[in-house]
From TrEMBL:
<dbReference type="InterPro" id="IPR001608">
    <property type="entry name" value="Ala_racemase_N"/>
</dbReference>
<protein>
    <recommendedName>
        <fullName>Pyridoxal phosphate homeostasis protein</fullName>
    </recommendedName>
</protein>
<dbReference type="InterPro" id="IPR011078">
    <property type="entry name" value="PyrdxlP_homeostasis"/>
</dbReference>
<feature type="domain" description="Alanine racemase N-terminal">
    <location>
        <begin position="32"/>
        <end position="206"/>
    </location>
</feature>
<feature type="modified residue" description="N6-(pyridoxal phosphate)lysine">
    <location>
        <position position="20"/>
    </location>
</feature>
<dbReference type="Pfam" id="PF01168">
    <property type="entry name" value="Ala_racemase_N"/>
</dbReference>
<comment type="similarity">
    <text>Belongs to the pyridoxal phosphate-binding protein YggS/PROSC family.</text>
</comment>
<keyword id="KW-0663">Pyridoxal phosphate</keyword>
<dbReference type="InterPro" id="IPR029066">
    <property type="entry name" value="PLP-binding_barrel"/>
</dbReference>
<comment type="function">
    <text>Pyridoxal 5'-phosphate (PLP)-binding protein, which is involved in PLP homeostasis.</text>
</comment>
């Protein structure tokens, strides 16, 4: 699939380029092609790339999409990402909220595939904890959910994990949820069919 086809398939939703394995020049090239949102998995890499690309005066919208360790909270806050996609529960939410001096748009990460290898909140606790974070963390602007599709060959299992996330997202809309971030390079088309309005694409973009 070439870049034109990817852009066509994602034209009605928000595309975030997951730039984990990508250098400054490649990010700049994709920015020049019209992709403005980039997501990083590691806080140090986000800081380094942002610092370098700020010199170019590019208006890049940075997302943090990886697991946040408590000793990296201050560095993440300093980067002022447009969206923290990977808040995986009340404890880390409280720790970030405590140190923020601005309002940070945030998604609750849900482990809808119930896989031990994945971070994210247990899907049975997601709604209750979403509301609790809203009540207890005023500097976090919770605006939706994020999940990673089931790590399966079986398409039905992947679809099921996306549908589970989407049902939770629908229930949270009355609490202000607007973003349902699901779908990566290998499953984004399934995610879009299941209701995703934001995808995080890495290898499929950068191998072109």
């Amino acid at each position: 699939m070439n870049l034109e086809q990817i852009l066509e398939k994602t034209k009605n939703i928000h595309l975030v380029a997951a730039s984990k394995y990508t250098d400054f020049n490649t990010i700049k090239k994709f920015f020049d092609l019209g992709i403005t949102d980039f997501g990083e998995n590691q806080v140090q890499a986000l800081s380094r790339k942002k610092q370098e690309l700020d010199k170019e005066n590019l208006n890049i919208k940075w997302h943090f999409i990886g697991n946040l360790q408590s000793n990296k909270i201050n560095l993440l806050i300093k980067q002022k990402p447009i969206l923290w996609q990977s808040c995986n529960g009340l404890k880390i939410a409280q720790a970030v909220n405590q140190r923020l001096d601005y309002k940070l748009d945030t998604l609750l990460e849900i482990n809808s595939a119930k896989e031990k290898s994945k971070s994210g909140i247990d899907l049975n606790k997601a709604i209750e904890e979403y509301i609790q974070i809203q009540e207890e963390c005023p500097k976090l602007n919770l605006c939706g959910v994020m999940s990673i599709g089931a790590n399966e060959e079986d398409r039905n299992q992947i679809i099921k994990s996306f549908e589970t996330t989407f049902k939770i997202y629908e229930k949270l809309q009355k609490y202000g949820a607007k973003i349902c971030s699901m779908g990566m390079s290998n499953d984004f088309e399934l995610a879009i069919k299941c209701g995703s309005n934001m995808v995080r694409l890495g290898s499929i973009l950068f191998k072109n």
